Amino acid sequence: MKRFFVTLALSATIAGTGFAMTEGVENEAVKARMMLMDGVKAATGTLGAMGKGEMAFDADKAGEARQALIDHAAKIPAAFEAQEMDPKSTALPAIWENWADFEMKAQAMGAAAEELDTSDLGWVQAGMGDLGGTCAACHKAYRIKK
Fold first, then answer.
1. pTM of the model
2. pLDDT tens digits, one per residue of 70-122
3. Annotated binding residues
4. Residues of the domain holding 28
């Protein structure tokens, strides 16, 4: 249960900081990948809000958020394949220096999302720890700390 609340706190922090603000981003490839990550943030935020009781649990909406995470995770490697940068980007060059590990982390996020059972609030809460852990692992290694 402790892991669930840590994950919820991480989700709230990510949602509150708006880590992928695209305003002022000139590089279109960077803007596209930031928008992709905003989609991850939105889906995670939906599941986190349900888990914290800030939003009524809705199995259909939870399932849609889960599917969005699966879809976005599959697109992450292609979105980052070109080593494009922008002053507003929080991506570290380590992504391209450790490409195989970066891809593996994106796949781990997709796998955690696939394993997430959204049929019941308790299962969503139980699975958020694993999902949040995959996000945190990638951000720790490949995102500029703010």
1. 0.84
2. 999 999 999 999 999 999 999 999 999 999 999 999 999 999 999 999 999 99
3. 135, 138-139
4. 2-142
